[in-house]
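Final report, results section. Input specification for complex C-07:
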Amino acid sequence: MPFRRKDFILRDSIRIPLLLTVLAGVLLSVFALSVIPSKPALAREETLQELEERKAWDEKRKKLREEHRKKKDVKKKDSSPTERIKIAFLLQEIEVPPALSNLDPVLTDEGYYGAHLAVEDNNTTGKFLNQHYILSEVTVPLDGDLVAAFKKLVADGHQHVVVNLTAEDILTLADLPEAARVLIYNTSAPDDSLRNDQCRANVVHTIPSRAMLADALAQFLIKKKWKEWFLVTGPGKGDRLFAQAVKRAANKFGAEITGEKVWDFTADIRRTAAAEVPVFTQDVDYDVLIVADEPGEFGEYLIWRTWDPRLVAGTQGLVPTAWHRTHERWGAAQMQNRFRRTAGRWMTSVDYAAWIAVRSVGEAVTRSKSTDLAKVRKFMLRPDFSLAAYKGIKVTYRPWNGQLRERILLAAPRSLVSVSPQKEFLHPVSEVDTLGYDKPESTCRKAG
Amino acid sequence: MKSSMQIKHLLAGAGILAVCSVPSPIVQAATAYITNEKDNTISMVDMDKLEVVKTVRVGQRPRGIIMNADGTEVFVCTSDDNRITVLDAKTLEVKYHLPSGPDPELFILHPDGRTLYIANEDDNMVTVTDVIDKEIIDEIPVGVEPEGMGMTPGGKILVNTSETTNMAHFIDTDTHEIVDNVLVDTRPRVSVFTKDGKQVWITSEVGGTLRILDGNTHVLIKKISFEIPGVSDEAIQPVGVRLTSDGKYGFIALGPANRIAVIDAQTLEVIKYILVGQRVWQLALTSDGKLLVSTNGVSNDITVINVEKLKAIKSIKVGRFPWGVVIHP
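Structure output:
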C-alpha cells in the first residue's frame, strides 16, 4: 500500500521519549499482570512456593513435636514384633520421543511417587497395627536386563511387584517360574488383550483398559446425542488399538463411525496443520472427531483447524482418563495436594494406579489379617473388598480378569467435564461394569 | 374529689409501671449457622421464621462450625486459611483467629470450654489449641486424613476417625496418647458418643455403614447397613450423625442418597428415611430437640425437619455447598 512518506516521519524530539514511554508501559503492564492474583473460583491450587512453605512449616512442627515428646518422657509400650511387608516398584527406562512442545515435561518416573505416597499411608495405619511396609524402587536402564532385576526382587522376598511396563514385558515376567510366588500390579499397560485371552492369574490391573476409556467417552457422547463420529487414527500400534476400542464402543452403545482416516503425515505439524487439517477433514459428515494419537504427535493440532466447526475427543481434547489435575471432588483435593507436596508435580493416571496398587496391598493385608499371598490375593478379588479412592464410590477388582473397577474422568485441558459411567446406563450388578469387558464378554479363562 | 382521683390515677399508673417493669420471660429464637464451603460465607438462619437473616463473608473454605458453651461465639474452621476464625454470634463480626495447624476440617470443644481439638485433614494430625491463650499446646499423630471428632460427656476420651486409614482412634485427653485403635469400614467420616457415653456411633461413607461400638470397651455392638428401594447401594454414603438428647432417635445423613435415616436409638433399627435435598452431609438439632437441620451440599440448601412428626417441613436456600451447621440454643 503506497503511503506518503512525510506523514510517517517522527520528529527526533518525539521519537525517543515516545519509545521510552511505550517501553515503560509494556514493563508496567507485565509487572501488573504478574501480581494480580488469579485464583480459580472453585478449586484452590497451591503454588510451588506455597508447597515449599508448607514443607518448611511441617519440618518445624515436627521438631517441636519431638521436643515436646521428649519433655513428656513418654514410656514406650511393649510392642509385639512388627510384621514387615515388602513391596517393589519396577520400571524400565523408555526412549523419550522428540517433543513437539516443551509445555509438559516428559515424565520418566511415573508411578514411583504414587507408590511412595501409598506406602506412607499404609505405614500410618500400620503403626497402629504393628505392620511395616517397605517399598523398593528399581529402575532398569533402557538396555538393562529386566528379567534379572525381577528375579532378584523375588529372591529378596518381594511378594507384591508394582510395575510400569509394556504389555509384552508384563507377560514375559508373569510367565517366569519365579512369578508363581508373586502378584504383579499393572499400573500403565492399557492393552485389552491382558484383560482377555492374555490374562494371567498373577497379574491384576489398576489402570483402566483401552476398552474402559473408550466406553466412558462413548457413553458421554451418546448422552449428548453426538452419535456420528469421525475417527482419525495415528500410525502407531497403540493408536490402532485405541481406535479398535472406539469402534467396539460405538457398536456397544449405538454410535456410527461416519468417517475413518489415518493421519500419517511426517512434516512438522506445527507448521502444516492449518493447511493440511481442513482438507483432511473436509469430506466427512460427523458430530465429533475422535482422535487416536497415544504419543501425542498431532492430536492437539486438529481442533480449530477442521473444515467444519467440530469438537475433538479421544487421546486429546476431551480425554477419558483415570486421574486428572482438574479433579477435586470426593476429597480428591486432599490427594492432589498431598501428591504435589511429595512429588513437586501433578499426579498422573499411572501415579494414581500405583497408589491404588500399594494401598490395595495394605487394605487386603489389614482386613484379611494375613500376609500369606494366596489369602491376600483371594481377599482382594472379593466383592466386599473396599478401597476409597477419591472417586465417590469404593473401588474393587473384577474377579474374572483382575481389572480394577473405577469411574473414569472425562477431562478437558482445564476443566473436568463429566464422570462415567453416565447414570443413564444401567447394570444389574454395578454400573461401573458397563465400562470395559464385563463378565460374559471376557475371554479370560485363567485368572480368578 | 379531684385530689383523690388524682391519687387513684397515680396509683394506677404506678401499678401499671410496676407490672411492666417485671421482666417477662424472653423466648430466644434459635439461630442456625451454616458454613458455605465454596462461597466462603456463613449463613445465619432464624429458626422461628425459618429464613436466612444474614450472610457474612468469612475466610477460605469454611467447613466445621461449633459454638462456645454460652453461645456468644461461633468457631469456624477456615480450612484453606489454615486457622480457626472466631465470630461474634449476634453480629457475625470476626473477633479473632486461633492457630490450628494446616487444613483444619472438624473440631470439638472440651467441656472445660478452653481446649479445642482440631482434625488437620491433610496432615494426619489432631492439633490441640488453647482458646484463651490462643496457642497450640500439642499435636497428636493419628491416621491418614482425620476428620470425625467426638468426645465422652465428661471429656475424658476423644475419638477421632481417619478417612484413609479407616480407623477410629480413642485418645486420652489428659495424656494426649492414643489408648485404642479400632478398624472400621471404609472412609469413616463422623464419630459421636451418646449422651450417657455408653455407645459411640461411627459412619463409614464408602463402606456404606453405621457402626455402633461400646463406649468403654469399643467392641462392636451393631453394624447397620441401609436399604432404600430405588436407590443403588453405592449412593448410600453415611456421613453426619446426630442423636437426640432424650435417647430416642439417631439421625444419619446418607449423602448422595439424598435422605436422612432415622434410627430408633433403643432398638437400633432403622425406622424411616426422610427425603431432603441433594448430597446431605451434616446435621444439627435445636437444643429443645424439636427441629433437625441438614445441610444439602449439592442443592445448596438446608432442610428443616420436625422431629416429633419425623417430617421435612421446609428447605431454605443458603450459599454454595453448605457443609457444617450448628444451632444455638
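The first strand of chain A starts at residue 83 and ends at 92. Chain A has two domains: 79-97+104-208+322-406, 211-321. This concludes the modelling results for the funded period.
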